[in-house]
């Protein structure tokens, strides 16, 4: 064997091996960055575990302020009681106004209001004096005519003053927020009055929709108002950014016909379900699917409809008294509505990109539960 030749070959191989090893190490070092550079950006929503934050309480500690004796001097001193839920400190925060259903009170949606406040919103829960629980109880009393509960509810939802003044109560609440933002000791400088949402359930859903341009019909109101027929004209407030309507009244209800929705001029999110019946103008029960008829009648652009399997009418309201109106779907419906409220507000009022990405069917469907086991999401 030629020892000198082997030694020469060994010495010549070492520089080559060192060069190859250095190249390999360099390649390993840059591979992660190369993968990042070549990865395609995801177009889907963020992972579910991240989006779960919308269903859970937010990071703000909250408190409540009660305004019992408010009166609108522009409307013959009409009383409009309100409760405000808010983060304890910080701001300015966007404003959300919640309108209750027939026979409700300012605290009918207390748990939803607290949830929104914990996520960084000022929430005004409003009481409508002509259609609250006091009004319903009056019509059921001897002095009010000894009406049944069904008759009393029909009475307040066809009363001309109750129907037409509700959207104006919303405008009054916005006026109050502007005043408080200037001078109230606990609210001054803490409300972003340029970003406003209105939400409501049933009669409150009518209120929210009318506040962004939907026009009620005069045909079924008592006493007769104006011509007594056709659309009432605009009752909306252009200061509102978007509305969310739970159990929205559809065409053929006491409030709206097919032409009522053409004038909706703001983003609108609607939620209803397969057991969410509504009453027609004649008091007869209409199937839940009639609420879905609203969607094709709306102008295109930022319109959404969430359909919940097995959701009934009372499941959309929750407070300390709701044990009186049990609903098997309430747990699921409340979890879903709370999440969608925050998602919608974060998108339309705070401009958060993750929230906008979450308003897609593939994420919305992940919120189904044991009772509400199917969800359908429409958008245009």
Radius of gyration: 28 Å
* Biggest sheet details: 9 strands, mixed
Q: Compute the average pLDDT.
A: 89
The ordered string of helix (H) and strand (E) elements is HHEEEEEHEHHHEHEEEEEHHHE
> How many beta-strand runs?
13
Question: What is the structural class?
Answer: alpha/beta
User: What is the topology, as strand order, of the major beta sheet?
Assistant: 1-4-6-5-7-8-9-12-13
Number of domains: 2
**What is the CATH topology of the largest domain?**
Rossmann fold
Note the main attributes of this structure.
10 helices; single chain; two-stranded antiparallel sheet; 13 strands; nine-stranded mixed sheet; alpha/beta
Kindly describe this structure.
With 380 residues, this protein is α/β, with parallel strands linked by helices. The chain has two domains: 1-39; 48-379, 3-Layer(aba) Sandwich (Rossmann fold), CATH 3.40.50.1820. Helix content is 34%, strand content 19%. It contains ten helices and 13 strands. The strands form three sheets. It has a nine-stranded mixed beta sheet with strand order 1-4-6-5-7-8-9-12-13, sandwiched between helices. Strands 2-3 form a two-stranded antiparallel ribbon. A hairpin with a 5-residue loop joins strand 2 (71-72) and strand 3. It starts with a helix and ends with a strand.
